[in-house]
């Protein structure tokens, strides 16, 4: 496994692979790696000649400087996990390697998809995400890039950014990787107490019950009401639950309003913000 800290050292390696017509799978991360990330590495290894993972805590996607400071950094553990899972290259740039002095996020027009849910909760967040992923795509020049569907809205943003920037990369969404309990793997889970970790699978359980109700013929309003009540009787504080069209991410009133539908939830366990979603 080869580790690069600078773009100027990464570039010749990429050029050499491209000259040999090798395919490159890429997983951009912010570190604090877990089994969810490793499932992306395995998918990339199965579909490409080489796999590259980047580790970079991107400052332009944090609204709150405290969150940036608190974000877990576990570099040695990350490198060990990647080596065990057969990653070929790791790109661990500095801020200076990717951003000019005083450079902020580029402003994109994503239509409705960054105006809802996480876009409302975290203004500017998706411009930061799109900016850094675009920079990383240009540096790594991947054939395919892999993203977990836990951050489904982020995948939609990246798909739109790729269109707008006219980048030649296939975006591969991967199913949410869950513990046996149903809890979605997340770097934030490390901040949960023992009790919160024990309670957290209730979130996926509520989402699964919502899908069951839809299959029994319940409408959107009834299901939203059910989910809100379930959270009132849970140890979590619900921030939002939305049922949306997967394409536009706009809320729907009836299941007949869209072909592909997904339910999104954000809830707090103490001060830890947990997100999850499920396809209806």
How would you briefly describe this protein structure?
With 280 residues, the protein is of the alpha/beta class. The protein is built from eleven helices and nine strands. It is globular and about 55 Å long.
Structure explained in plain terms:
This protein is an alpha/beta fold. The protein folds into two domains: 2-174, Rossmann fold, CATH 3.40.50; 187-274, Pantoate--beta-alanine Ligase, Chain: A,domain 2 (2-Layer Sandwich), CATH 3.30.1300. Helix content is 41%, strand content 19%. It has eleven helices and nine strands. The chain has helices at 7-19, 35-47, 65-70, 75-84, 95-98, 118-121, 125-140, 152-165, 194-199, 201-215, 220-232, and strands at residues 2-4, 24-29, 50-55, 89-91, 144-148, 170-174, 237-245, 261-269, 272-279. The strands form two sheets. Strands 1-4-3-2-5-6 form a six-stranded parallel β-sheet, sandwiched between helices. Strands 7-8-9 form a three-stranded antiparallel β-sheet, with helices on one face. Helix 7 packs across helix 8 (152-165) and helix 10 (201-215) packs antiparallel against helix 11. The protein is globular. The protein starts with a strand and ends with a strand. 34% of the residues are buried. The mean pLDDT is 97. The active site is at 37 (proton donor).
